[in-house]
Amino acid sequence: MVDAVVKSFRAPDEVVRLPKLTAELVELGELTVSRTVSEPGWRWSEHVRPSVGGDWCQVRHVGVLVSGQLGILFPDGTEVVYGPDDILDIPPGHDGYTVGDEPCVQIDWAGNRPFFASFLIGSRSRVLATLLFTDLVDSTAVAARLGDVRWRELLSTHFAGARAELERYGGREVKTTGDGLLATFDSPGQALRCAVAIRRVANRDGLHLRAGVHVGEVDVVGDDVRGVTVHEASRIMSAAGDDEILVSDLTRALAGSSGLGFQDRGTHTMKGLDGEWRLAAFVSETE
């Protein structure tokens, strides 16, 4: 017998009310579906940013616009306006606003759980997370060789591929870091397998990737993560060589129990961090 689930926005699991914006959230396992109504005059940078920080909304939104109009502004000045029945796939790094005098109603099936997380559990919470940092190797030299237009196209293609792998392995993008990204996972195994997949995406386009995976407590502030663990993960990534995935000793111990293999890379002194850090390279995943 089919185990069907019937849920409704008439009885949402959670409701978030912000200035000029109301969101009704329905949970379907790991999927959060939301109906968001933004009133005329609503703008992310004016009504949400003061609470969550950051210059731009760093969440990808996927859904459909039911009524009204939604405007999206990107850092390069590009603006896109969505209307009724338009399908939304809005990448991280944007400002959103209601267009015109009619409320904007949209349904989202990706993006709004991290977007509203801080308002559901408080403006700041401390959680245990696995962090993945990636970075493209020698990107400045590659950009100079290819030229600005070709490099932007290649970088856009890389991020599109990387985001597909994040979705596949259950990662949550926090933000891009120039030519890399920061993501969180529920377990080291997910993060390591995703790092291998993103490396494969980079190699397919003739690029090389370094990555770092680290486990620790982080402060969740809006759609961002902060704290010493974030800096530690970034330093671990920076110590990696071309196409190398480095992990902290704690990450190695946790992931090793799942049968994943590593090679010791000795101890390292990392800028801004106390003491010596023993690092290992993840080597067991099949390419």
Keywords:
single chain; 287 residues; alpha+beta; Jelly Rolls; Alpha-Beta Plaits; 2 domains; eight-stranded mixed sheet; six-stranded antiparallel sheet; globular
Structural overview:
The protein has eight helices and 17 strands. The strands form three sheets. Strands 10, 11, 12, 13, 14, 15, 16 and 17 form an eight-stranded mixed beta sheet that branches. Strands 1-2-3-9-4-7 form a six-stranded antiparallel beta sheet, with helices on one face. It starts with 13 loop residues before the first strand and ends in a 5-residue tail after the last strand. By secondary structure, it is α+β, with helices and mostly antiparallel strands. It folds into two domains: 108 residues, Jelly Rolls; 158 residues, Alpha-Beta Plaits (2-Layer Sandwich), CATH 3.30.70. Strand 2 and strand 3 form a beta hairpin.
Task: Provide the domain count.
Answer: 2
Rounded mean pLDDT is 87
Number of helices: 8
Helix content: 25-40%
Major sheet details: 8 strands, mixed
